[in-house]
């Protein structure tokens, strides 16, 4: 994986972590004290921004990419990269509600490379399956890491794709 892809993935995770700490209101994400405490900001050591510009176009994407089975974020590597799948789902659900109010389209995309990286990523990735299938993806793209192992490819074809 190139350094650019790693940097982009980390930037996206950081942005999602920061935006998840706020609530979407009128096209801007604003952080409230109650939301910060509910999401465990003090426990995580994260500082939520007071406002983040969040422009909406006619078509909008929330893209999750290169997670490599890190379901709990990267808290021990960086306090700003601490979004887990629950945070991402919460962020998407709030954006979806906002997009619907604005009569805008919003698509939730898994951009691949969700395997290889932690002990949860077995071959095939049976321990990741319940979590990945719980997420309301509109699009699931396979990355190169899903194609490295024949057993993982069979799992994708026989079990993962039929779920959708």
Automatic annotation (TrEMBL):
<dbReference type="InterPro" id="IPR006179">
    <property type="entry name" value="5_nucleotidase/apyrase"/>
</dbReference>
<feature type="signal peptide">
    <location>
        <begin position="1"/>
        <end position="22"/>
    </location>
</feature>
<dbReference type="Pfam" id="PF00149">
    <property type="entry name" value="Metallophos"/>
</dbReference>
<keyword id="KW-0732">Signal</keyword>
<dbReference type="InterPro" id="IPR029052">
    <property type="entry name" value="Metallo-depent_PP-like"/>
</dbReference>
<dbReference type="GO" id="GO:0016787">
    <property type="term" value="F:hydrolase activity"/>
</dbReference>
<dbReference type="InterPro" id="IPR004843">
    <property type="entry name" value="Calcineurin-like_PHP"/>
</dbReference>
<protein>
    <recommendedName>
        <fullName>Calcineurin-like phosphoesterase domain-containing protein</fullName>
    </recommendedName>
</protein>
<dbReference type="GO" id="GO:0009166">
    <property type="term" value="P:nucleotide catabolic process"/>
</dbReference>
<dbReference type="GO" id="GO:0005829">
    <property type="term" value="C:cytosol"/>
</dbReference>
<feature type="domain" description="Calcineurin-like phosphoesterase">
    <location>
        <begin position="61"/>
        <end position="154"/>
    </location>
</feature>
